[in-house]
């Protein structure tokens, strides 16, 4: 390893070593081009600093130029000698700004720990030559500490010709250099966001997996990872040959493919899950537009996973400036309308439609920095598709003027637009969010949306201006409603919440009270509390029973739909329950505020401090046998505590599921989502017609033959329940409140503003 000679200007390359011949002549200074391309390979880290209690770290690397983050690596968990082998290409305007490299330890839910930094001075690099670089990491506050090193390979190439012309054109259009630099950096970031294909993985089954429990069985589930994208399957209890039948879609960013990492785990309540094995898929070996059946043996374990993998070309996803968007071009718009016309309803059923989102500007955002300003950027999400704007620095009224285009796979998806404040050395601060169901969008209307809190239950400071267009095929959208909803990437593990548990309990209680009140109403007819009502009920009962036919069941379900439609059309809203849910969520927010204001426990009330003091006493008295006894009791207590927590989470989720299905059935008949109510009318009408004209025995026979032969016809089909899939698209009362637009408040009071601003 040889050190690079210092330049005549005396620039110090502290912490940088470059592999190369020691007698190399200094490179001649070339004429300064308009722009440079910097290609970097982040290879590995060596002897990095320990930041976790386990004696390891979870390192990742950030690259910054002129104070702006231009790259972030993936996180390597529990490794002090991580191997990244990641490549990045950056466009730089000047070589005077060094590349600032920082390493952090990822801590879930906490601020990431600093692990060291170093500078790579770009002026010291030779043009058109790849140099291996070792950066010695240092902490500016403690420069004597050894924090390890990073190995890189850097190539600097001047960009001439077309790049120079494009630069001059940009300079004429953008007078201010800060905007010009931000635009170029956002172009690099824009290309890094766009995916080039879809990887569809169907997890079919496992065979002869390793037993991990005392009963000779396991409770297996599977984790998938492709880059930053992660999925987790459901858990199949007490089996070594699980049948999952689940499908997951990944975005493919690298045209060369990549690797899907797969791990199998055994679920254990109250303790750490057991590792059962791993395997991987090399996507570069699979042909596109073809379904591959893979039997993957598990490494470091036993058994086989059976998967179906399909690689397809990317749908139309793009980021552009406001002046360049396809739906404003009449010819492009006509072609898109033709693609989703009724005549093409059965062509490519997965391609339901397209949505174009114009993110124009925001006003009155919350100040997140000590300077009284923010560095806002905007993230637009549709299911698992995620794109973002560039950052506008030191501004509470940013203008982005960007256009995002997504393909719609499910018309019942919700468009989420979130505004964040970029922070240099820590995770971004939340500024506000809106959630807009695609079916609620008014095409071509430029609207100001009041930003909401993270939970979407109350307002926060600021508004965002959006213009959205949705074009879709109604037949494809209706058919897509009857297949399983797309899963989201792995989210945070559910936690026990007193407020959430109470809310779900109250929701279930309201559903039960509705059934009790209905039963009491029917019973009152038998008790003759109202003679007129009892006479009408008796006559109705006799007529229906005397003339009853099976087709009357779906026909009867059409009656409340028609009745509620007439009431809503006449101006009478039957959806008072949503207001009650809104009041409940407001009360819940107040409870959270009270909890935040509660005094923090003292040192003797903190369990960790008590343990620390107890351990110090035991160490000083040398009662090792007492320490072992306390540790054993504490471990047993913690296992019981985790088991109770798992039970509480299960009860919390079960209450939410029961309440949600009850509310969704009600909201179907209440016309909360007209598209779904019309779809229910069509389905009930078809069912009534079929039952009326076709004898019941033929219907049951056809259903049974289909069920018995389904696996013979398609052994790897994914089972689903069309009714539950339909109900999963209907919003619950909580979701109705979350998706409801807030009225813009031009002059909020200071107290209300303080309350609604999340800390």
TrEMBL record:
Mode of membrane association: Multi-pass membrane protein
Transmembrane segments: 538-566, 675-703
Domain C2 span(s) in chain numbering: 18-135, 175-298, 330-451
GO MF entries: calcium ion binding
Domain of life: Eukaryota
Region (Disordered): 588-608
Keywords associated with the record: Calcium, Membrane, Metal-binding, Repeat, Transmembrane, Transmembrane helix
Keyword field contains rRNA-binding: no
Keyword hit for Repeat: yes
Coarse class of the protein's main subcellular location: membrane
GO biological process assignments: regulation of neurotransmitter secretion
Compartments it resides in: Membrane
Cellular component, GO annotation: synaptic vesicle membrane
Compositional bias per record (Basic and acidic residues), positions renumbered to this chain: 594-608
Gene3D superfamilies membership: C2 domain
Family membership noted in the UniProt record: Belongs to the MCTP family.
Record-given protein name: Multiple C2 domains, transmembrane 1a
Gene: mctp1a
